[in-house]
């Protein structure tokens, strides 16, 4: 059985004439063209949509898995070829920023991915189209689908067109920082300890929560930082603490224990 035969046997959302127009509009935004439009449609299909629609049992998660690997390979190869003087650890650090959720979300938004995602009504109600994880995962699924549809060279060109500007941001120190990692490295070096994150409070209704988190270092609290999820709030708190440390307002010396 060929791959095309297997694709036809998948229980994917039907591509109606109206949906085909929508997908062609996305292709225009992304400057790519699919031979198998069903693959692109599958890349946009979140599991919540499949769960709520009888006859649709497949979603974009396997394409996301594939796309993540293709993305990592393309970025790693590009860094290897263009930065031959950099150590492996430095290239790994650059790659981690470039293929991060935040980076993929920015790209997804630039391509208006949120307008084309197929999600269930419950996920729609909870703001699923703007959730970072859904947008980043969908972007990886699109990359995976394009790789299956058109092969490695076109996929590589597509990825580099989107990500070389992000690589340049990192090289020029204009990228969004991973403050949790930066803070942990700084605290370990200066105080031989680790930051501790504590949830201070949650505000707002269940579908629109705001989290407030503080970080403690050697008994001293920083923050709280806020975010729409715990991960964002921790990054916000870490940013406050890291900037205090680098401005000379951190603990002067390590203590024997933390509160």
Count helical runs.
12
- What helical percentage do the residues reach? 55-70%
CATH fold annotation of the largest domain: Ribonuclease iii, N-terminal Endonuclease Domain, Chain A
Please provide the count of β strands: 3
Q: What's the order of the H and E elements? A: HHHHHHHHHHHEEEH
Q: Report the sheet-strand fraction.
A: 5-15%
Shape: flat
**What structural class do the secondary elements suggest?**
mainly alpha
What is the CATH architecture descriptor of the largest domain?
Orthogonal Bundle
For the record, the count of structural domains works out to 2
CATH superfamily of the largest domain: Ribonuclease III domain
Largest sheet: 3 strands, antiparallel
How would you explain this protein's 3D organization?
The chain is built from twelve helices and three strands, in the order αααααααααααβββα. With 259 residues, the protein is mainly alpha-helical. A hairpin with a 2-residue loop joins strand 2 (210-217) and strand 3. Helix 5 (61-82) packs across helix 10 (152-171) and helix 7 packs across helix 9. The chain is flat.
